[in-house]
Design brief:
Number of domains: 1
Radius of gyration: 19 Å
Strand content: 35-45%
Shape: elongated
Largest sheet: 3 strands, antiparallel
Number of helices: 1
Strand order of the largest sheet: 1-2-3
Helix content: under 10%
Distance between the termini: 45 Å
Length: 72
């Protein structure tokens, strides 16, 4: 964030360079010749210089995606 974007509630913050490690697992399951299910679980681990940001609320993030695929 630039100094011009800072407010009383949101102070200027510059984290510098960071490595953002994550772990991801995906799977696919065929239902028919044209349809399949898929799922993905992803976990991100934020380093301390990112967690110290005033706009970051947590240290680890976990999300999942589940879907149905149809091939034309």
């Amino acid at each position: 964030m630039n100094a011009s974007e800072a407010t009383a509630q949101r102070v200027q913050y510059a984290p510098g360079n960071s490595t953002l490690p994550y772990l991801s697992v995906s799977t696919f399951y065929s239902l028919t010749e044209k349809t399949s299910l898929f799922a993905n679980i992803n976990s991100s681990f934020l380093p301390s210089n990112v967690v110290d940001s005033p706009i970051v609320e947590g240290k680890n993030y976990l999300y999942t995606v589940i879907g149905l695929n149809y091939s034309f």
